[in-house]
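Hi W.,

Here's what went into the run:
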Amino acid sequence: MAKVVYEKTRGLTENPLSYCPGCTHGIIHKLIGEVLVELNVLERTIAIAPVGCSVLAYNYFNCDGVQAGHGRAPAVATGIKRTNPDKIVFTYQGDGDLAAIGTAEIVHAAHRGENITVFFVNNAIYGMTGGQMAPTTLIDMKTSTSPAGRQLDGAGMPILVSEMLSQIPSVTYIERVATHDIANLDKTKRAIRKALQNQMDGKGFSMVEILGTCPIGWAKTPADAMDFVKEKMIPYYPLGVYADKGAR
Amino acid sequence: MMSKVLMKGNEAICDAAIRAGCKAFFGYPITPQNEVPEYMTKKLPEAGGVFVQAESETSAINMVYGAAAAGIRVMTSSSSPGIALKQEGISYLVGADLPCVIVSVSRAGPGLGGILPAQSDYFQATRGGGNGDYYLPVYAPFSIQEAMDLVFKAFDVADEYRTPVMVLFDGMLGQMMEPCTPVDKKPGNFDKKWAANGNSDGRAPNAVSSLSLKGEVLEQMNLRRFKTYDDIKAKETMVDNRVTDGDEVAIVAYGTPARIVLNAIEILKEQGIKAGLVRPITLWPFPYADFANLPASVKNVVVCELSMGQMVEDVRLGVNGKLPVHFYGRTGGMIFEPEEIAEQIKKIIGK
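Here's what came out:
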């Protein structure tokens, strides 16, 4: 008998992913699915899918799922978690969803110290709608609604969500991680685990900001997109722990 | 038999909700419904429920969506501009077939308008402002007792048909006190196999969603929902029709204005004019049949609303051209007097 050295996590379903080739949503889904199984919480987890590329995430996570309106996932998560405190509730949100239309919901869920986990995938663009400028789009980055590149004058600087939310007294844990190489994927998985463990321990609001790629929206090959994360995204969005209070 | 209590309308409906098994309330302050969240924050936790004051009406309705998706009996309340903000969430609740109760204590509009009682949100309640093909049952009580009874019923209707249900009344009913008997019934018991609340029992994962990217699938979902609407129309339409053979005028009003109309009818009676009240209790489904089948003695239909005329459109659909349909209304928070309505009726029928 050959020894199994790797197998697909049962934290994900058998449904083929709808994501574009080279996009990092697939690997982020895998890491979350693995952690849900390793923490033995899959059967009591409810995943909240946003409006955006991951709108169908409830088809991929092998647990109960709820689709939320655009930006509203933290409010939906609040409704579920407050009425089901023994369940594990996480939102999986993109930057258009969380950092634009859903800023009120994320800020106030953090302020209330909701005992939920937020996975915030920042790829600096609206992917699903075809590559428009997001609040997180870098200066000079070209998108379909910033064809000359994002300009400070008029569009302002990209929103630093982790830095902003870490100022809120009642947050428990905020870390920014990336997915462009194996070492960073390991760190990402550790952060995902910590953010879910915090919820299991009743510690309060945890968010992991994950720098992802959008090769199609960025008009880059998957490999070039990984380099873009390392060379352009991380200098503006520094990786690291922004809040870690251990308990509320 | 429960003994009578003296309660404010806004508090009475909370009592009914808790008796109906409501376990979560999410709201946001707005006049004239503030007694609802104020009562719920005290009483709901005592009944084992959850209260959260949200950062906005939008968030409140999305918290409702979350709790409803997890299979919890849940309620929110608001007033006109706040209900406008909730419309996005109401459309999602409908799209995901989620039950909940939405209390709308309406005030004068448009815009910020004013806080005085009005009925200018009939369209908002019965036609909605959310996207997509949908309706929701709308109850319009005219007394605090009826408000209690209908809020209790609304939870069962919501669960039975898997739909949001709205209870619409104006600030008059919300703010005044009346003796009423708390509901002494058992709420319905519904097995919510579809709820997203964890599958530790071994069932396949549930997905609660309003999304369907395939046209042929979404069409079937909408057709199925409209079959449910046919059921609701057949079984849940409610009307208080007091028109009898011999009445020459049918006066149509809903909510608290119907009480003013009853006084106007007494004044007319003293002057030898026979008029009867038709009071829709469900605004959707609307009791169209009652207007198609008025006694032959009725020569005129007069609709009285605290608006510029909204329900009058449904009355015209029901009457279908058989009789003249007139309208008399006040707006901006102004309330008509019984004598004022009696004068209008006399003018309309030429007496």
